[in-house]
């Protein structure tokens, strides 16, 4: 997927125009929700700037020496900076390596390019160290900071970058694109609902086992209030999955139940494939208890998203037990 994605077109043209006019800044900040393809955009731009023979529309040729090195991940004028492990920080040593990389002159005489992703993974030391570089950027260099949460970046860093905002594309455009990528049988509206309309996140739901996990989770949740399943062993199963994803789905399901309990309208269901079960649960449960459950899930999400080591199994157990208790509270 090396070509420019349809919803990137106008940003791509904008950046390319600046490049052709020799007005490209030294630092770009690519912001927007996850699943919009910001990193792919950065990669495509790096390939174009390093390509010896870019195409008329600005895409890299894909065949020259530079393109081959890029595809092999060994281009000496290109550096990718990311946490050593997903969810970890970008350490100050990595920024020092970046500064050293910039200190050497280009080997192919074009640009020296860095993609740093996600930028919010930098700790304070890393960010301060990067800031010095941004204040005095060497010529013919470009750093692209990719950020899903630019609010977490230092204001001084943001102010040194030219910002590119990746907003959610129109639904029609995304549906048409997903239609091309997926088989006819794929539930595209559901995928978009579950991924907050972010096209690559929607695609990833199909390409991974995520949808099957989601089915299993909902079966578990629907069974809990019947009292016929053990919340502790169920929570134990969940703790082996991507816990943040589990919590997001629970949250979305609980929201659907609350929304239906309050409005009686079926057209607002995000999880419309579980409509019947959700309607039944909405009639059984006490709305206040559902709000309490929602808050519990939200707090758990914040805890597992934080830095500290969290006992996620304990959190999931207390949520599972609360789901069981919902059925006891409904008669109040
Ligand atoms: Zn090329």
Q: Descriptors for this entry?
A:
54% helix, 5-stranded parallel sheet, 332 residues, 5 strands, alpha/beta, Zinc Finger, Delta Prime, domain 3
Give an account of the 3D structure:
- The chain is 54% helix and 8% strand.
- The protein has two domains: 6-167, P-loop containing nucleotide triphosphate hydrolases (Rossmann fold, 3-Layer(aba) Sandwich), CATH 3.40.50; 208-329, Zinc Finger, Delta Prime, domain 3 (Up-down Bundle), CATH 1.20.272.
- With 332 residues, it is an alpha/beta fold.
- It has helices spanning 9-20, 38-50, 65-72, 92-103, 124-135, 155-159, 171-181, 188-194, 199-207, 210-223, 231-238, 243-263, 275-284, 287-305, 312-329, and strands at 27-31, 78-81, 112-116, 141-147, 162-165.
- A five-stranded parallel β-sheet has the order 2-3-4-1-5, sandwiched between helices.
- It is built from 15 helices and five strands.
- The site of zinc ion (ZN) has 9 residues, from α3.
- Zinc ion (ZN) is lined by residues 51-53, 60-61, 63-64, 66-67.
Mean pLDDT: 91
Shape: elongated
Structural class: alpha/beta
What's the architecture of the largest domain in CATH terms?
A: 3-Layer(aba) Sandwich
Task: Walk across the major sheet and give the strand order.
Answer: 2-3-4-1-5
CATH topology of the largest domain: Rossmann fold
* Total DSSP helices: 15
Largest sheet: 5 strands, parallel
Bound molecules: zinc ion
User: Which spans of ≥5 residues are poorly predicted at pLDDT below 50?
Assistant: none
Q: Please, what is the CATH homologous superfamily of the largest domain? A: P-loop containing nucleotide triphosphate hydrolases
CATH class (first level) name of the largest domain: Alpha Beta
Cα-atom radius of gyration: 23 Å
Number of structurally distinct domains: 2
Total strands? 5
Report helical residue fraction: 40-55%
Distance between the termini: 55 Å
Beta fraction: 5-15%
Order of helices and strands: HEHHEHEHEHEHHHHHHHHH
């Amino acid at each position: 997927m090396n070509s420019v994605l349809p919803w990137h077109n106008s940003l791509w043209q904008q950046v390319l125009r600046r490049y052709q006019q020799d007005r490209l800044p030294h630092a770009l900040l690519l912001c927007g929700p996850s699943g919009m393809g910001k990193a792919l955009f950065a990669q495509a731009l790096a390939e174009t700037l390093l390509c010896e023979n870019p195409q008329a529309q600005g895409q890299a040729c894909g065949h020259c020496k530079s393109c081959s090195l890029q595809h092999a991940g060994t281009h000496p004028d290109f550096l990718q900076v990311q946490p050593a492990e997903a969810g970890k920080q970008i350490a100050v040593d990595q920024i020092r390596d970046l500064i050293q990389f910039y200190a050497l002159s280009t080997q192919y005489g074009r640009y020296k390019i860095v993609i740093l992703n996600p930028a919010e993974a930098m700790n304070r030391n890393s960010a301060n160290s990067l800031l010095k570089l941004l204040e005095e950027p060497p010529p013919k260099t470009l750093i692209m900071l990719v950020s899903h949460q630019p609010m977490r970046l230092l204001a001084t860093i943001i102010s040194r970058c030219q910002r590119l905002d990746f907003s959610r594309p129109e639904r029609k455009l995304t549906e048409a694109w997903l239609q091309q990528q997926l088989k006819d049988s794929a539930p595209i509206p559901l995928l978009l609902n579950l991924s907050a309309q972010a096209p690559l996140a929607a695609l990833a739901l199909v390409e991974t086992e995520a949808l099957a996990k989601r089915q299993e989770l909902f079966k578990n949740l629907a069974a809990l209030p019947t009292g016929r399943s053990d919340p502790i062993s169920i929570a134990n199963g969940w703790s082996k999955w991507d816990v943040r994803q589990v919590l997001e789905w629970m949250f979305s399901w609980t929201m659907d139940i609350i929304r239906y309990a309050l409005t009686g309208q079926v057209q607002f269901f995000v999880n419309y494939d579980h409509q019947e079960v959700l309607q039944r649960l909405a009639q059984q449960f006490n709305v206040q208890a559902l709000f309490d459950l929602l808050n519990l899930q939200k707090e758990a999400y914040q805890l597992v998203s934080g830095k500290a080591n969290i006992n996620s199994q304990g959190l999931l157990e207390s949520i599972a037990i609360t789901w069981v208790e919902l059925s006891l509270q409904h008669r109040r």
